[in-house]
Amino acid sequence: MSDWAPKRFWKAAEVVEVDGGFTVHLDGRTIKTPAKEPLVVPTCALAGLIAAEWEAQGDKIAPETMPATRAANAAIDKVRGQFDEVAGLVAAYGETDLLCYRVQAPEALRARQDAAWDPLLHWSAAQFGLRWVVLEGVMPQPQPPETIAALNARVARFSPFELTAFHDLVAMSGSLVIGLAVTEGFDAPETLWQLSRIDEDWQREQWGEDDEAIALAALRRQSFLNAAAFFAALR
Question: What residues does each domain of the chain span?
């Protein structure tokens, strides 16, 4: 495998206000997306996150250390042109939301699920006018049509940049409700991430640590927190 990576070619990254928002200049040159579009974002705070990522690069560029840049690229090159498809894909998580599926046994795990997830479901019901059906087991069951319609309408109100972050919040946690809780400031992102890990933490306690599972969970957690930071920078 080749160790080639693009080298740093700039000395300074600078946030610049332009028509339509803010961009980042590298020694006076505007950053472009992979599709060669100008990388223009809605807020100075988000442009600041992106500039900090470019400023932090060493001699070689490491894209995996630039989550805000990658997400902004995705919003511009992909989500903006396929908004309805992406919104529908994300909203569909509400049909099988993690928080609606509980175990019958053991009782101790069920008690943890209820204590962690019921407040989130009650909050979302009051906040967005939803009615949830909570089930035992893992077999998918439909949620009320009015709930799905309300979720679709809420997701459709996001901007392409917000939807890009929201997609990762939902996909990493497995829960549309947890994703909405992050965007609405229901609790700290780290706390909400931990609430999505009730089942995994139980399994770990019963059967011990698994190195591969730990590594995967760490990657998913970081992606979740990166998405939360990206969304917060849009506000």
Answer: 13-65, 82-233
pTM listed for this prediction: 0.94
Residue 210: which pLDDT band, with cuts at 50, 70 and 90? confident
CATH number of 82-233: 1.10.3580.10
**What is the enclosing helix (H) or strand (E) of 104?**
none
What mean pLDDT do residues 135-153 have?
93
Mean pLDDT of the residues in the chain? 95
Do 59 and 107 touch, CB atoms closer than 8 A? no
Closest CA to 171 of 132, 212, 130, 219: 219
Q: Which residues lie closer than 8 Å to 38 by C-beta, 6 or more apart?
A: 18, 23, 30, 31, 32
82's tokens:
């396929």
CA atoms within 13 A on the CB side of 218: 6
Contacts of 189-193 with C-beta under 8 Å, sequence gap 24+, read 189/224, 189/225, 189/228, 189/229, 190/225, 193/221, 193/224, 193/225
DSSP three-state, residue 17: strand
Tell me the pLDDT tens digit for each residue of 90-107. 999 999 999 999 999 999
Q: Does domain 13-65 have CATH number 3.30.2180.10?
A: yes
Phi and psi at residue 105, in whole multiples of 5°?
-150, 155
- What are the φ/ψ torsions at residue 140 (nearest 5 degrees)? -60, 140
